[in-house]
Specification:
The complex is a heterotrimer of chains A (316), B (425) and C (170). Chain A is α/β, with parallel strands linked by helices and 316 residues long. Chain A has eleven helices and nine strands. The N and C termini of chain A lie far apart (58 Å). The relative contact order of chain A is 0.17. The mean pLDDT of chain A is 91. With 425 residues, chain B is mainly alpha-helical. Chain B has one domain. Chain B has 21 helices and no strands. Chain B is globular. Chain B starts with a helix and ends with a helix. The mean pLDDT of chain B is 88. Classes of the chains: A alpha/beta (316), B mainly alpha (425), C mainly alpha (170). Bound molecules: sodium ion (2 copies). One sodium ion (NA) binds next to loops of chain B.
Chain lengths: 316, 425, 170
């Protein structure tokens, strides 16, 4: 059985190298019964097209960024809501508690899922320092088309969102059609947007992550033993990517700093203002049905638990 | 399998619509792989997922409007007044304009239908031979890929950056690397068109500021357009992808409301003609997506390249085979798929043979540019044949001298790395 | 009887042409208006709509397919056509019949499988422009190919009649 899996991740990236090595392991351990063929770099079309191709069976799976699975289950990208997390510690705590639940959502929707891999925090990157809502006001920030949640998030903290296809971002930055981008350090380096900005505001804006899914209609046809092998190998790879991407982002931060980009910390009261605005917005979007409020509340209460525990820890 | 191939080929040269040939071959391939044929519709729907395609209908419409107006005559008057003393003056202007236009729009044939539609009648009016003019506008359709801010150049930078090869491929340096090779192409073609039309000139003594003033006054509404477009993009007022909208709206307003060279009641007919052309091109592009997907599935580029790799042992050998390989690739794949699929394959090998990644990018795009003109399948040839209502064989013949000059320039670019690397370093 | 039928067909064709032309003008007009609106909005009001780009791209698809149907109106699709110019008379007509038949079959297949694609999208309630059903926008694919097949079927019949007439003359 051959699984054909498409992704937008470019050939040669860490992501692809690891997935290919996983495919090799699976082939060996199942004695050639399960093969995986990857189509990297978005050659099979964007994530929506890939999803359509999975439905008609030309492809059997895809490695997506969480937002692309909204159509399968709108709650998958809950961790990416604006300014939910303040640090990677918080991310680890919440994901430990909730990853399983989101994965089960995907499994129920008909996709075998092998865990999430971190893409990192997206930060505001700009030509002038942004320390407050006043600094941000009116600056034009790029928003990918169709990304309603980002659009409203950016708007709520005073930025002026400009919707553009990704192909226009580089020239857009050059000509000041857009002034600001929000991206993970890895992403900024990959697309070379870092050459057009000078400052990074170090308050995390949102949390990005990706996942690998295989259509259950095909996955279930494997013997139970083979299914177990695929799961074991791919889950290990995704756990591994999850860790190594964090390291890669840390290195990317170093690379950005080395190229003279300055990371700035906004004053505490300004960050608090941003967070209260985006928290209100998130709740509002939940009420409008963009995702389930119950799950969002669960994230918030888990975070409160964590923050309270941390305070206790320091006071004793 | 081979029989089906031969059959389709025969049907194609007998004049079956090209899109049916592409669709049939893709369907045959998918059928053999047991893929549900609704894949064809999925692929076709990807037309609605590619922002760059937006430029095609808009520029086509603008091009039709311009060709139906007096704009070609005004252009002729203007160049005569300005550089009438120079042999092949208008032809050189045409080359430069097309290169600039392609740099901003990519090379999807849109240069031919938008700018060629204006330039072809102008060239004829200025006394150039029909076949020469045809060859010129067809060739110019892909000139300029090497100039910033061409999208393929940016995409190469991004793809090459990901393919960890040691040295960094910054887009800014890539822009610099493309400049001289791009200028070389335009210069060599200019040299050829000047020599070819050395008889076509008015004596320098005939130059007069009065004539120039008259011509400039007549063109008072045409001159602002390039300024608005370039100023708008570099001033941050609109995106490169929106330049087509601005152009179409501007030309529509000027030609219909201000100059009134096109009557309102003629507009529906122009819309119909231009959109029929758009339909003809886009249906081919859309179905080509399907045949490309099939070729990716069948690993055609990978197999081709494995063959190349097996047969090289030196840098020179690598470069020669690379040129051939890319020429074939440019004729069967669209430039964006080719970039994403093939650059990760060839880059590590190229670096192994001491080819600089920046230089490789320039070689890659220069060859792809030729691929648009390679018979029998280069897309620009068909588009030109359709737009100017000439048999495809006439188009083939008319592009031959230009093709030879371009090929020469591509060889120079390939075997003289300094040309690409001098500015960038 | 045959005469009446052909009058109905001619009227149908005329109405179809009118519809096509109007649709093309409407779609292109919308495209220009939405595109211009986006630029004005951004420069003067510092806002933009999240759906603008997607709607423009859907318009491109529609324009392309309606345009393709229009191109088939006068058999004006892009061809390589190297050989058929050397044929005349009956041989040429015979070749045209083969080509028409081929085109009709390919387009019918594309229409049929386009239809099954649309049904599938309906079944999975796929969305475009945040929450509009995608199948409405996608159904232009089978319809367009169905119409192109219909047009070439008519060319086939016309060429068949011409061939019959040629035979009778001899
Ligand atoms: Na990419
Ligand atoms: Na091509």
């Amino acid at each position: 059985k051959t699984f054909k899996i498409a992704t937008a991740a470019p050939e040669g990236s860490q992501w692809m190298k690891e997935m290919r090595s996983g495919a090799e392991k699976i082939k060996q351990r199942t004695e050639g019964r399960v093969k995986i063929k990857f189509y990297a770099g978005g050659v099979m079309g964007n994530d929506k097209s890939v999803m359509r191709k999975i439905r008609i069976g030309q492809l059997q799976g895809g490695a997506f960024v969480s937002g692309s699975l909204d159509e399968v289950d709108p709650d998958i990208s809950l961790f990416s809501l604006p300014m939910v997390f303040r640090s990677y510690e918080e991310v680890d705590y919440v994901r430990k508690a909730m990853d399983r639940e989101l994965i089960d959502h995907l499994e129920q929707a008909g996709f075998a899922c092998f865990g999430f891999a971190e893409g990192g925090f997206a930060y505001i990157m700009s030509p002038t320092p942004i320390r407050s809502i006043e600094d941000a006001r009116g600056l034009k920030i790029w928003v990918p088309e169709g990304d309603t949640i980002s659009y409203r998030g950016m708007e709520s903290i005073g930025l002026a969102p400009v919707v553009l296809p990704i192909t226009d971002v580089m020239t857009g930055l050059q000509a000041s059609l857009i002034e600001v981008v929000a991206s993970s350090p890895i992403g900024a380096l990959a697309f070379q947007w870092h050459t057009k900005v000078k400052y990074v505001t170090s308050t995390p804006l949102s949390y990005l992550y990706g996942t690998l899914v295989i259509d259950q209609r095909h996955f279930k046809k494997l013997s139970a033993a083979d299914q177990k092998v695929v799961r074991e190998v791919m889950e290990a790879i995704y756990a591994d990517l999850d860790r190594s991407n964090r390291k890669e982002n840390q290195e990317a931060v170093k690379a950005l700093t080395a190229q003279g980009i300055e990371f700035i910390d906004p004053p505490a009261d300004e960050t608090a203002k941003w967070r209260s605005i985006t928290a209100d917005l998130n709740r509002q979007m939940g009420k409008e049905g963009l995702f389930s409020v119950g799950l969002y509340d669960k994230i918030v209460s888990t975070l409160e638990q964590f923050r309270a525990g941390k305070k206790d820890g320091t006071s004793h | 399998m081979i029989l089906v191939g031969i059959g389709l080929f025969l049907l194609a040269i007998c004049g079956a619509p090209l899109f049916t040939i592409i669709a049939a071959s893709a369907m045959w391939g998918f059928y053999g792989e047991d893929v549900d044929l609704s894949i064809m519709a999925v692929e076709l729907f990807r037309i609605a997922e590619m922002p760059i395609l937006l430029a095609i209908p808009l520029f086509t419409f603008a091009g039709y409007l311009l060709s139906e107006s007096q704009a070609p005559s005004r252009l002729v008057a203007m160049t005569r007044a300005l550089i009438g003393w120079m042999p092949g003056g208008l032809a050189v202007v045409a080359l430069a304009a097309c290169a600039l236009f392609t740099a901003f729009t990519g090379a999807s044939g849109v240069t031919i239908i938008a700018l060629g539609a204006l330039l072809y009648p102008a060239l004829l009016e200025d006394g150039y031979e029909g076949k020469f003019s045809l060859g010129l506008v067809t060739t110019s359709g892909s000139l300029g890929l090497l100039f910033a801010p061409s999208l393929p150049l940016i995409l190469y930078g991004i793809v090459a950056q990901q393919t960890s090869s040691g040295s960094s491929v910054s887009i800014d340096r890539l822009f610099l690397a493309g400049a001289l090779p791009g200028i070389l192409m335009v210069a060599m073609l200019s040299g050829w068109v000047i020599w070819r039309n050395r008889h076509l000139r008015t004596p320098l003594a005939a130059f007069s500021f009065e004539k120039l003033a008259v011509a400039a006054r007549a063109s008072i509404w045409d001159i602002p357009l390039p300024i608005i477009i370039l100023g708008g993009i570099y001033g941050g007022f609109f995106a490169v992808s929106e330049a087509a909208t601005v152009t179409a709206v501007y030309v529509l307003l000027v030609e219909v409301l201000i100059l009134r060279e096109i009557k309102l009641r003629d507009l529906p007919d122009i819309v119909r003609k231009s959109m029929a052309l758009v339909g003809g091109i886009m249906i081919i592009l859309g179905l080509s997506l399907a045949s490309t997907t099939y070729m990716i599935d069948a690993e055609v580029p990978q197999k081709l390249f494995a063959f190349v790799r097996e047969h090289v042992s030196s840098q020179l050998g690598f470069l020669i085979l690379l040129n051939l390989f890319l020429l074939v690739l440019g004729a069967i794949l669209d430039i964006f798929s080719a970039l994403v699929l093939v650059v990760p394959l060839i880059l590590p090998v190229a670096v192994g043979f001491d080819v600089d990644p920046l230089h490789l990018g320039i070689i890659f795009l220069a060859n792809m540019q030729l691929g648009y003109l390679t018979p029998p399948v280069g897309l620009n040839l068909f588009i030109s044949s359709y737009r100017f209502e000439q048999p495809i064989t006439t188009i083939y013949r008319s592009t031959i001298p230009f093709f030879v000059v371009l090929l020469l320039s591509v060889l120079i670019i390939t075997y003289w790395p300094g040309l690409s690397l001098w500015l960038a370093n | 009887m045959e005469r009446q039928q052909s009058i109905v067909l001619v009227r149908l064709e005329r109405f179809g042409r009118y519809l096509e032309n109007s649709l093309l003008c409407l779609l292109l007009g919308l495209m220009l208006a939405i595109g211009a609106m986006q630029i004005i909005q951004r420069n003067f009001f510092s806002t933009s709509f999240i759906w603008t780009d997607e709607s423009l791209r859907l318009l491109v698809l529609w324009l392309s397919l309606v345009g393709a149907v229009t191109a088939s109106r006068d058999d004006k699709h892009i061809t390589i056509d190297i050989l058929s110019r050397f044929l005349t008379g009956k041989k040429r007509l015979f070749l045209l019949l083969v080509l028409d038949l081929f085109t009709v079959s390919v387009c019918s297949l594309l229409a049929w499988y386009g239809g099954s694609f649309v049904r599938m999208e309906l079944e999975f309630s796929s969305k475009v422009l945040s929450d509009l059903p995608a199948w409405i926008f996608e159904s232009v694919i089978p319809i367009a190919f169905g119409l192109i097949a219909y047009r070439y079927a008519i060319f086939f019949c016309k060429n068949l009649c011409k061939l019959r007439d040629l035979w009778r003359q001899e």
